């Protein structure tokens, strides 16, 4: 075996020192969820800075020829070690700021670790420690030492994502502050002892800065807080600014602008307070600020005992399909949704087998490939490889696992999205639809796991004047059930609790509304009245009824309980309800029946006239107002023009439906091309492809014909072509690509099957999972999920996976049903 110093000298040119902007993956293996905490540690390539587990580093070496790796192993200190070694680490500070990655904000959890690092040279795995470097030539010692130090000093990609700065306290100067009108009405406010002028409430008290009126604040979702008297005063007077009494200090106070509907800054606050006899410099804080109240909500996760089953001793579970997921900073919404999805057979079958099929195709797996990382996540959750108890979890965390930390996956699915790319809490329902949309984009042919949820909805609209009907179908992935609060079965208790709160009774109980599930279903199935319907039969606007039914029943049905809504004052709130969601569901009675015997249909709107090639093409006459409305929603101008054109100028609803159905089209934003016009460059199927792009894809192990097919399908865009080819591995071998670049089906002129592909069957289902939310809104709080596995309910609470004793099925937000086989 060659001397290790000589070996290092021979590979010195491949060893790089990380520069600003380099992405260092030192927490997660590119091919698995191995980390420095796992057995065998992590090997970081000292050239590309990609990390690899012990079982994958040899593969990377064989495919790239790279030999030098920094081997990182990490063991967590026990609590006894921290105490005995006198590490001197200060206790965690209580958050004082609603922020992440900012002084005073929430700390990213920093475990105390013992780390060991050394350079490993492959293929013989020769080891070089920092001490060994001291005996080597200066040129070797300097380059290798700088690379080692640079890798260890650099923030890993996962850490950068986790502590991405977010400040929930940034406030803007109110536009009313500089010229606020204040009434000379002689009102003087005492320094303490404030009560609402209307209801005598003594907490959550606000003073209007225009007239000095002292009133209580808004009522919270659970009935606490106030009685909305300060808000009602603004609605009656239009006086915009109010200050929360009890938060005034020499450094400032909470100021709210009802007109701007936000917490604001008031640069003239001392002057405005002095007008009513308040000396800001002598005031002391006696109430929690709005920020402190929000922080309390974010710290109160462990107090929500019912949903997390905290009142019982839960038995930890381990094994395949029982792997926990680390919370990466408000990522519980992602964790809960993905745990449920990988219980569905369609997602399972596209994960573990795909993981072993995809990984060998690329010399260095691209960390931007959606299909790859979806398969990698599925393997991590289903294999059981990472389902091990956390070392020294402590009594308060009994049941925690090592689990997996899918930083790369989270970064990928959130890339470019204004919400999911942040560390803020998100709506699990919105994320589920976002993820399904990504699956759809990456599975244009072949097996598509999202088909398990896809179904057709039939809408029947009947013109009340002509009694003629119109039938339309649309694709959906979720049933959204309204919550009819007027159908509560415990109305008397709710009214009594409300009365006591309005009278200022601090001991008034919080009563949860009991809503029958049948009432929610009835609200969904009953006809909707359309008061502004344009009838093609009478050529005028009139009244119509719309009835919604299932045109097909999916294999798996998702039901959302619409708990999040807006009050009359447009303030977001969450309905605190308990719904007796059944274990089994029979929706057969909601099957669509189509046109009835003897029923007349509304006349079809005449489509745009066709233009032949020998006729002069004129610009279409488009409804400018509809185009403008669509543009204001953020859609591209050309897409808006096409939506209005192809729906025959029939209005905003039809155009919007066209846009939603064509958003994934490759030419969605391309200019409108009329029939008979020559299509623009780059649209013909025989367009030449980039030789450079071809060579790149061929170097990954694919044939030239397969690479050509991928490039043609994605308008010659390399990144999209690579994503496309990995999402079509099922049928790559059977692709028949002609020299012209078209498939046999295209060459013969065969059309693809019309309409979306949906599955259908009986409308009988059984509940197998549900996702629950705790908190005042989708933007704060915590998510957990319960999944039924082998007739046993299991709770997945981030890294904690336990047998459920009392699954709170009445408090769920998203419910997942699967078809019952007949």
The helicity comes to 25-40%
What kind of sheet is the major sheet? 8 strands, mixed
The rough form would be described as globular
| Mean pLDDT value | 79
SSE class: alpha+beta
Regions with pLDDT < 50 over 5+ consecutive residues? 81-91, 98-102, 162-168, 297-303, 362-368, 393-397, 606-619, 675-687, 733-754
Percent of residues in β-strands:
15-25%
Total count of helical runs of at least 4 residues: 25
Please tell me how large the radius of gyration is: 31 Å
Please give the alpha-carbon distance between the first and last residues. 67 Å
| Counted beta strands | 29
For this structure, the quaternary state is: single chain
Active site: 332, 782
Domain UBA: 621-662, 688-728
Binding site for substrate: 206, 218-221, 256, 258, 261
Domain UBP-type: 172-280
Characterize this entry briefly.
This protein has 822 residues and is α+β, with helices and mostly antiparallel strands. The chain is 26% helix and 18% strand. A hairpin with a 4-residue loop joins strand 18 (528-535) and strand 19.
Description:
This protein has 822 residues and is of the alpha+beta class. Strands 16, 20, 24, 25, 26, 27, 28 and 29 form an 8-stranded mixed beta sheet that branches. The protein has a 6-stranded mixed beta sheet with strand order 8-13-12-11-9-10, with helices on one face. α13 packs across α14, α20 packs across α21 (652-662) and α23 crosses α24 (718-726). It is globular and about 90 Å long. The N and C termini lie far apart (67 Å). About 11% of the residues have low confidence. Its EC number is 3.4.19.12. Residues 323-820 form the USP domain. Belongs to the peptidase C19 family. Residues 621-662, 688-728 form the UBA domain. One of its GO terms (molecular function) is cysteine-type deubiquitinase activity.
């Amino acid at each position: 075996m060659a001397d290790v110093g000589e070996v290092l000298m021979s590979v010195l040119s491949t060893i790089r020192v990380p520069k600003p902007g380099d992405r260092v993956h030192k927490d997660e293996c590119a091919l698995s969820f191995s980390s420095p905490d796992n057995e065998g540690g992590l090997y970081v390539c000292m050239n590309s800075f990609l990390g690899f587990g012990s079982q994958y580093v040899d593969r990377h070496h064989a495919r790239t020829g790279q030999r030098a790796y920094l081997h990182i192993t990490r063991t967590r200190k026990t609590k006894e070690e921290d105490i005995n070694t006198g590490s001197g680490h200060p206790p965690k500070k209580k958050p004082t700021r609603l922020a992440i990655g900012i002084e005073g904000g929430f700390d990213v959890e920093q475990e105390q670790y013992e780390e060991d690092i050394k350079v490993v040279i492959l293929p013989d795995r020769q080891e070089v420690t920092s001490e060994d470097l001291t005996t080597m030539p200066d040129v070797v010692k300097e380059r290798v030492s700088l690379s080692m130090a640079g890798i260890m000093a650099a923030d890993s990609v996962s850490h950068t994502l986790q502590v991405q700065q977010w400040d929930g306290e940034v406030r803007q100067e109110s536009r009313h502050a500089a010229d606020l009108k204040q009434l000379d009405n002689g009102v003087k406010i005492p320094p303490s002892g404030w009560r609402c002028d209307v209801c005598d409430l003594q907490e959550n008290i606000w003073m209007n800065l225009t007239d000095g009126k002292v009133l209580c604040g808004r009522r919270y979702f659970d009935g606490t807080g106030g009685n909305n008297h300060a808000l009602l005063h603004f609605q009656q007077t239009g006086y915009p600014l109010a200050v929360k009494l009890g938060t005034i200090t020499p450094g400032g106070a909470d100021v709210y602008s009802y007109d701007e509907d936000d917490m604001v800054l008031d640069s003239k606050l001392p002057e405005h307070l002095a007008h009513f006899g308040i000396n800001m410099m002598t005031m002391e804080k006696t109430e929690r600020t709005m920020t402190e109240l929000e922080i309390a909500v974010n710290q109160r996760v462990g107090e929500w005992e019912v949903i997390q089953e905290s009142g019982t001793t839960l038995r930890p579970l381990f094994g395949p399909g029982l792997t926990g997921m680390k919370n990466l900073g408000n990522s519980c919404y992602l964790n809960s949704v993905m745990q449920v999805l990988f219980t569905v057979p369609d997602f399972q079958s596209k994960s573990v087998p795909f993981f072993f099929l995809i990984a060998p195709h690329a010399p260095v797996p691209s960390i931007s490939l959606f299909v790859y990382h979806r398969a990698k996540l599925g393997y991590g959750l289903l294999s059981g490889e990472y389902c091990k108890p956390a070392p020294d979890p402590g009594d308060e965390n009994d049941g925690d696992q090592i689990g997996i930390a899918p930083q790369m996956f989270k970064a990928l699915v959130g890339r470019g999205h204004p919400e999911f790319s942040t560390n803020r809490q998100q709506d699990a329902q919105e994320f589920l639809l976002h993820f399904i949309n990504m699956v759809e984009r990456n599975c244009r042919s072949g097996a598509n796991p999202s088909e398990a949820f896809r179904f057709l909805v039939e809408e029947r609209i009947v013109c009340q004047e002509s009694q003629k009907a119109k039938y339309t179908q649309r694709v959906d992935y979720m049933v959204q059930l309204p919550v009819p609060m007027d159908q509560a079965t415990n109305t008397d208790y709710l009214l009594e609790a409300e009365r006591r709160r309005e009278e200022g009774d601090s001991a008034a109980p919080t009563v949860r509304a009991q809503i029958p599930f049948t009432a929610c279903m009835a609200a969904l199935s009953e006809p909707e009245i359309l008061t502004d319907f344009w009838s093609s039969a009478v050529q005028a606007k009139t009244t119509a009824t719309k009835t919604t039914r299932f045109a097909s029943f999916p294999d798996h049905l998702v039901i959302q309980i619409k708990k999040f809504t807006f009050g009359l004052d447009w303030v977001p709130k969450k309905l605190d309800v308990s719904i007796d969601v059944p274990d089994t569901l029979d929706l057969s009675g909601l099957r669509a029946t189509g046109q009835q015997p003897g029923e007349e249909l509304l006349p079809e709107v005449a489509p745009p006239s066709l233009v032949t090639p020998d006729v002069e093409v004129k610009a279409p006459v488009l409804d400018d107002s509809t185009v403008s409305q669509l543009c204001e929603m953020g859609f591209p101008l050309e897409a808006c023009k096409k939506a209005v054109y192809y729906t025959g100028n029939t209005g905003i609803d039809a155009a919007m439906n066209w846009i939603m159905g064509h958003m994934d089209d490759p030419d969605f934003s391309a200019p409108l091309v009329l029939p008979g016009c020559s299509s623009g460059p780059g649209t013909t199927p025989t367009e030449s492809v980039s030789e450079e792009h071809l060579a790149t894809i061929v170097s990954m192990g694919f044939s030239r014909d397969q690479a050509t097919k991928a490039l043609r399908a994605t308008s010659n865009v390399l990144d999209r072509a690579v994503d496309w080819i990995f999402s079509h591995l099922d049928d790559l071998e059977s692709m028949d690509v002609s020299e012209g670049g078209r498939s046999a089906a295209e060459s013969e002129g065969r059309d693809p099957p019309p309409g979306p592909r949906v599955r259908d069957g009986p409308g009988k289902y059984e509940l197998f999972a549900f996702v629950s939310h705790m908190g005042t809104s989708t933007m704060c709080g915590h998510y957990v999920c319960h999944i039924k596995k082998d007739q046993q309910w299991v709770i997945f609470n981030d890294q904690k996976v336990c047998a459920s004793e009392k699954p709170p099925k009445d408090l769920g937000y998203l419910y997942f049903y699967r078809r019952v086989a007949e």
